[in-house]
Q: What sequence folds into this?
């Protein structure tokens, strides 16, 4: 897991705790609690985007190699090729 993801997870945990404390102190529908909830939603969204981007990046990097095959010249005849998959 990358540095950005770890940082976001820590921020998510902290914001979640702040939201719960706010809800217990001021109520679930208070402006403070709702603001914390919206900020938490934004952090979770950023985390999901980051994870999705990393997964997509890994798929794009590894996919071409799954379909790759190698062609080696036949040692006995220069005009024939042996295909290795």
A:
């Amino acid at each position: 897991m990358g540095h950005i993801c770890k940082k976001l997870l820590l921020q998510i945990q902290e914001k979640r705790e702040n939201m719960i404390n706010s809800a217990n102190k001021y109520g679930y529908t208070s402006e403070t609690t709702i603001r914390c909830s919206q900020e938490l939603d934004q952090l979770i969204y950023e985390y999901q985007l980051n994870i999705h981007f990393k997964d997509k990046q890994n798929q794009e990097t590894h996919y071409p190699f799954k379909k790759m095959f190698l062609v080696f010249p036949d040692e006995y005849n220069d005009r024939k090729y042996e295909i290795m998959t």
